[in-house]
Amino acid sequence: MMGLLRGPLETGNTDTALTVAVPAIPFWSHAMNKIALVLKSLALSALLATSAFAGGERVNINTADAVTLDRVLVGIGPSKAEAIVVYRKANGPFRSADQLASVKGIGLSTIEKNRDRIVVSGAAVPAPARKVAAKPAPAARSGAAR
Question: Counting beta carbons within 10 angstroms of the beta carbon of residue 59, is it exposed (0 to 12), middle (13 to 18) or buried (19 or more)?
Fold first, then answer.
């Protein structure tokens, strides 16, 4: 009878070392293990991707400094982040995320990649209050009716 561990009496060897017989593992078992590993990897990737979008950091492009813009926005490095700040100081606050395309080096594809990370607030600059002059009262007619 053949077991997993075979000694010198079963194998005919006279040395005292034991040899280990490895039972044959069917092909389908390896295939199932590989499929299970792939499915586990996909599930983990989906979980990580979902949590990255759900808990992603957002940035207000009207108040953030260059370091924050560089850290939060994808495809925006230190020089583009500084260009955003310079543009904002020269032209006033952004009214929409799409207005970032006016900054040199930033295109619509970069804006689309970051749309869920961009917050635009503080863009509405109140117009100065105009003083409304009181209408003068109609002048009193002098004289009799004609």
Answer: buried
